[in-house]
Amino acid sequence: MDVWSSLMDGFATALTPMNFLYAVIGVILGTAVGVLPGLGPAMTVALLLPVTYALEPTSAFIMFAGIYYGGMYGGSTTSILLNTPGESSSVVTAIEGNKMAKAGRAAQALATAAIGSFVAGTIGTALLAVCAPIVVKFAVSLGAPSYFAIMVLALLAVTAVLGSSRLRGFASLGLGLAIGLVGMDSVTGQRRLTFGQPLLADGLDIVVVAVAIFAVGEALWVAAHLRRTPLHAIPVGQPWMGKSDWKRSWKPWLRGTAFGFPFGALPAGGAEIPTFLSYVTEKRLSKHPEEFGKGAIEGVAGPEAANNAAAAGTLTPMLALGLPTNATAAVMLAAFTSYGIQPGPQLFSSQGPLVWALIASLFIGNFLLLIINLPLAPLWAKLLQLPRPYLYAGILFFATLGAYSVNLQAFDLVLLLVLGALGFMMRRFGLPVLPLVLGVILGPRIEGQLRKTLQLSAGDPAGLLGEPIAVGVYVIIALILAWPFAYKLFRRNRPATAPAGGAAGLATDTDDTVHSNHHAVYSDHKEQP
Amino acid sequence: MTVVVGYVPTPEGEAALTQAITEARKNNTTLVLINSSKGEATVDNRFAQEGDIHDIEQRLASQGIQYLVKRPVRGHDAAAEVLDAAEEHHADLIVIGLRRRTPVGKLIMGSTSQRILLEADCPVLAVKAG
Question: A53, A515, A525, B108: which one has the fewest Cβ atoms less than 10 Å from its Cβ?
Fold first, then answer.
């Protein structure tokens, strides 16, 4: 399999006028929802899932990829101009970016964010094109026990490592797995959690669940906190950078990319940790440490590059293993399933042209985003003046339309409202949404691998440990779960030395700060009218 | 006895404020400044920033005017807030700034000034930006 020629074929597919048009629509939509706080690429892709019934898979995925990357770009604009992260991965950008904007350097902050995102996105996508086939080669040798173990690792890692509270994370994951269980058991035909309701026998459609949790839940939440003291966007002209800005930006871009891609590619992915690590590194390496906290350009360049590289990295396990680690990738995976395409290592061989067109479209999308973001930044900022009632009325309209269009059943609208209320309650009580969505989407696939493993071992649970990789993964899982207890014990025994401890101290320090940033996002949500 | 002024951080709003200060000094009355937002958009540039309001307060204080600054955010439009305040404080004058609007723009967006002019129970002084 020659990466280069496959990729060129991918470009040929992605550059046909129709597909190019979908890429343009995708990046514009993606930037728009990225700019608006509360909306994100995951919600947008979920709302657009019903188009998969009418569109060709290639076009649909090219559009989704555009939305995915666009969301990352748009988020930084809001962070810089408003000090409200448009998106969780641009929390760190807001620290220095908003200070720069207040000091009258908004144009440079936006420029370094956009160009850095472009550089990191392009390198990240190139790494994705190189790494994914290698991961696939390794993955095809894996059997069901290893798969099961890796998927469990991904779920646990996303739940336990990200987010502010493990308990809330696991509660959310449990809800997701339960929702994923509803319907007919694929092996025995037994009905589970259907409560005698024949309409539930086919299970809950992922479109309904995703739209309800992301769109309806958020709309209800916003409706409950409709009036908030309006903020001021810092006025900005055309983004540009001077010579010294370039000189100070290019190294952070590359370092940010180096942080972002591997973290994105790990099953515990997420863009929050690498953006923060990049920020800390830049602060330490900077020749202008005194500027940090007052608007240092390195503090924008590094994290922005890291979050885009992480976005590219996240697609590696998604395409190569069928393992999504963030909400947007999870919803994209649901789109694969709704086309009847089986995600997993066989994807590259069975759907080669589609996958390579998708990767090529990421390069194209990145380039388009640079073009539309540099000159149009002031225009994007204007979007923030949209009154929320109009915006969310539109979202609810499309949510209802989408949920109804899946099966043309009024019952789905009832489900939409019930799950939307669940989404609202989750926001109310600070439960993260990501574990639920991953649980719903990965749950049935995990169950499939578990059943396969147990069938092969004739019901003997020892079969789960039948492959060395599986054993290794379980060790990692045990470490992740045991870590907080071990750390607590360590701290209790050596209270004096613990805070000054080298690597261990740094690691938890980072965690804490990332978490408090999460709180910042939440507290923005909870602000009273 | 008060002068109510509808303030927005634009040239029209500044003109209205300047006029209101003149009126308040002439009649030696309290000045009530209203700067409201519906609070429905993330960003509202017609809602004055903390710093601007602070500057205005200092300006009013230095001129020895009794004043009251109100910044309601409760989903009512600007006209309703100004009329409310006028009623509450028994205004004997409302000062507003007028901006140029095309007939079509007025048809679509409505007009805050027009509503105040039509519905106010006291005299309304409308000024334009210098």
Answer: B108
| Element housing A142 (H / E) | none
Q: Where are the domains of chain A?
A: 2-525
Closest-CA residue to A296 (of A4, A92, A24): A92
- The DSSP secondary structure of A40-103, one letter per residue, reads -HHHHHHHHGGGGGTS-HHHHHHHHHHHHHHHHHHHHHHHHHHSS-SSGGGHHHHHHHHHHHHT
> What's the pLDDT tens digit per position in A211-233?
999 999 999 998 888 777 788 87
Q: How many CA atoms lie within 13 A of A105 on its CB side?
A: 19
What was the pLDDT predicted at A67? 94
B2-128: CATH topology is Rossmann fold (3.40.50)
Partners of residue A384 in chain B, C-beta under 8 Å:
41-43
For residue B53, pLDDT over 70 is answered with yes
Residue B23 C-alpha, separation from nearest chain A C-alpha, in angstroms: 30
Please give the pLDDT value at position A217: 93
Is the model's pLDDT at A11 over the cut of 90?
yes
Band (A477; pLDDT cuts 50, 70, 90) = confident
Instruction: Give the residue on B whose Cα is nearest the Cα of A229.
Output: B39
B43 contact residues in A (CB cutoff 8 A): 82, 230-233, 381, 384-385
Report how far Cα A490 is from the mean position of its chain's Cα atoms: 33
In A, minimum Cα distance to B75 occurs at: A227
Phi, psi dihedrals of residue A271, rounded to the nearest 5°:
-100, -5
Are the Cβ atoms of B75 and A227 closer than 8 angstroms? yes
Which tokens hold the place of A192? 């589970």
- The set of residues, in sequence order, having a beta carbon less than 8 Å from that of A413 and lying 6+ positions away, is A400, A403, A404
C-alpha to C-alpha distance for A79 and A94, rounded to whole angstroms: 5
Q: How does the average pLDDT of chain A come out, rounded?
A: 85
Which A-chain residues 259-318 have CB contacts (< 8 A) with chain B?
none
Q: How confident is the model at residue A518 (pLDDT cuts 50, 70, 90)?
A: very low
- Residue A230 near chain B (CB below 8 Å): yes
Provide CB contacts within 8 A for A20, sequence distance 6+.
Answer: A14, A364
Question: Which candidate from B39, B44, B75 shows the least CB-CB separation from A385?
Answer: B44
Cβ atoms of residues A304 and A282 within 8 Å: no
Q: How many CB atoms lie within 10 A of CB A529?
A: 12
What is the pLDDT averaged over residues A322-342? 88
Contact state of B42 with A226 under an 8 Å Cβ cutoff: no
Q: What is the mean pLDDT of residues B35-61?
A: 88
- The beta-strand segments (E) located in chain B are 2-6, 30-34, 67-70, 91-98, 124-128
The number of angstroms, rounded, from the C-alpha of A1 to the middle of its chain's C-alpha atoms is 29
Q: State the ipTM, two decimals.
A: 0.78
Name the residue among B41, B49, B73 with its Cβ closest to that of A388.
Answer: B41
pLDDT in tens, A437-466: 999 998 988 998 898 899 888 888 888 888
What is the pLDDT at residue A296? 87
Burial string for A482-492 (b: 16+ CB within 10 Å, else e) reads eeeeeeeeeee
pTM of the model: 0.85
**Of residues A84, A384, A529, nearest to B41 (C-beta):** A384
Each residue's pLDDT tens digit, A382-400: 888 888 888 999 999 999 9
pLDDT at position B86, please? 93
